[in-house]
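Budget justification, computational time. The allocation requested in the original proposal was used primarily to generate structure tokens for proteins on the priority list. As evidence of use, we reproduce two of the resulting records. The first is shown immediately below.
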Amino acid sequence: MMNKQSLMQKRQKIEQFRQSSSLSPLHAEQLGQSIVSSWQRSTSAEIPKDRAAAPLVHLQKETYPSALAQALQHCMQDLKHIAEQSSMVLAVGDIGSTIIWTASSPQMQRAAESVHFIEGGQWREELVGTNALALSLKTQQSSCVFSNEHYMSSIHDWVCYAAPIVDPYSKQVLGVIDLSTTWQKHNSLGLLAAERCASIIQSALLEYQKQRLFIRAFSVPQVLFNGKVLVLTPRQIEILTILALCPQGLSLDSLHQALYGERKVSIGTLKAEMSQLRDILGGMLGSRPYRLLAHVEADFLLTEQSLDAGYIDSALKLCTGVFLAKTESPFLCAWRDCLESRLSHAIFKANETDVLLKHMAHFPEAIDAVERLIELMPKTHPVHQTLLKYKDN
């Protein structure tokens, strides 16, 4: 642990950086480029100057809780113990930086409540500025934000350590965990503690996901069952994708219509496909109606959930290619058209230029992303002129 004088000097130096009209590369190196970049984004976000607490949202209790929420049920007592013994407040956030669960020591309880570092608190960078929870999701790395590195002055007395929570099977980032205390207790081991808490949740995920299906439908389609890649035909992947989108199940006729439409394919052919899939999934495929009995997650479902929650950047990051580009299923084609329409609408609300540029790397013909980037980038920026030429072509 640093002594009080060293910590005070650190605060004073940060304040000098905050008051500076521009930060040199040397300043950025001393402060950390991720913090400097976050400050710049926070300034551009036009956050109300008098904002002293995060916006609150009422969390809907899902009919089918997320894997992260389910895993928390298995390890929350361990996490509560860590928060209480370390005199910290511990928070778990979803992929959009909204807190879904907290545990606090008595010392931090009132402070956490006063700034809405509680369940339902929205800690997205564009809402509250620089903070460890949002920064860790942005960089997908462990992050520490000390004292007045935070954008909101109401949390300048805090130091926060955060680490992303990564799905052990799919390697998708599912959320983030944050440990926070007062700045005088800053400790270089804080990040290790946050990473340890993330690993506790990841271990709980492994336990919870013993019968678990993960479907990738963007770019190169792939299905994982209990962490192992299944060897499937494109048609079988289409069937699983349809069933993932229809968790209530489908009759044989409805599934046939969704998969083949008006194509002349016999019911017997579909029955044979279902029989093979049941063998591959070890009985995790129900009938009458046909439905998946394993826990199902998918990149396209995560994208849809991100759009529903207004997490535009998360949705664009997840969308790494065309959804089942070769499918002829009328149901899946219609769903893809709907998703692309929603993504296009979301793009015109996006504010992160780096996220939009990455989206263009996956979708070179995304003229909506080009138009939004032209709106966001200064006319003096060299990329701005390139984008104008790209649009004209």
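The second record produced under the same allocation is shown here.
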Amino acid sequence: MRRIPRVRTFALAALLSASAVCRAYAGSPSMQEFTQIERGRYLSILSDCAGCHTVPGGKPFSGGRPIETPFGNIISPNVTPDLETGIGAWSDDQFDAAVRKGIGRTGAHIYPAMPYNAYTRMSRDDVMAIRAYLNSLEPVRQSRNANTLPFPFNIRSAMSVWNALYFTAGEFKPDPTKSAEWNRGKFIVEGPAHCGACHTPKTLLGGDRADQYLQGANLQGWSAPDITNNRRTGLGSWTAEDVALYLKTGHNRAAAATGPMAEAVELSTSRMRDEDTKAIATYLKSLPGNTDQAGPAAVDANVMAAGGAIFRDQCSACHGIEGKGVPHLFPALAESTMVHSNDPTTAIRMVLRGARSVGTKAEPTAPGMPSYGWQLDDRQIAAVLSFVRNSWGGAAAPIDAAEVTRVRSDTALRND
């Protein structure tokens, strides 16, 4: 199934800026209206609305982006204020029901590719502010292509069963025993930022596995990492400052954002206020995650020797002979949660296809990793990754060549 990359364009930043909002409402007599629009603009950043509702080279928020799911592609709708193809003719109640309850304008269920199960944590006032911002944009007339969901997933009424299993409506309620910063972080993570959509494992029906909250998942040909405070596979070795810096710049002393996370950093987290990235970090660092620790991995000595030789020849120039990398530039493999993840999909993919990190206002350099899929065969890639996963104090299951073959085939089919 081909993955359609999320939009990555600095032109969008200008359209999302406060100055654009000012121009849209030039001459408005009400400062209160502008305040609501600006609040909605920021909430749309927290919610990463542009990531799904804008296609590369297209008009902002005019929809048409295929959202890949395990059941088929769902096409994002036009949410500009066009009266016929957008949301211009929607009532406030209809818009609120769609965003927070998953009920479309006609009363039909919306598929949870639009994460209403997270957006329900926002208040109606939050949603009305987002609508005020969207209404300030240029109306775009653009019809929506049909979804490509096969039977029986194309039966929307079946969503009532999904909702009964996995959807609980209700606004976020602060925990009075926790700090305001912690509560703000939890609200953003569980609500507008919908972090669980990527980082929480899913059932066969696509619902969240609540008992594995934010412990990593596989989607769209990538493995989203564990973002709990697990020491081996999560953020346990990161400080709260490391987490906040990663969200704000796309880099920190140990890691660099790539793939879907790089796009989320570019369009959403890098544009958040510092106090919000710090709040997210505070909340994530409070999550214990799975406390199970891996014992010493049984890796064949010949595999380790072969992998070590490949690492010295191909990888050490950037990542260092001891896997320490270069802070804010090349990831420290010795501390990489992606490298030690129980799901090695992303690590394999990056060696096969290479990757480009994200450039942000704070750190505009976007370092890249070259592809080695043309140079190394599946057995060699498995060896070097098994070496990296079990060196410098690390311990993780060795990777089999068959797993590399699977990822190579999948990425070739996606052509992304």
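A brief technical remark on that second record: Confidence is low (pLDDT under 50) at residues 1-27.
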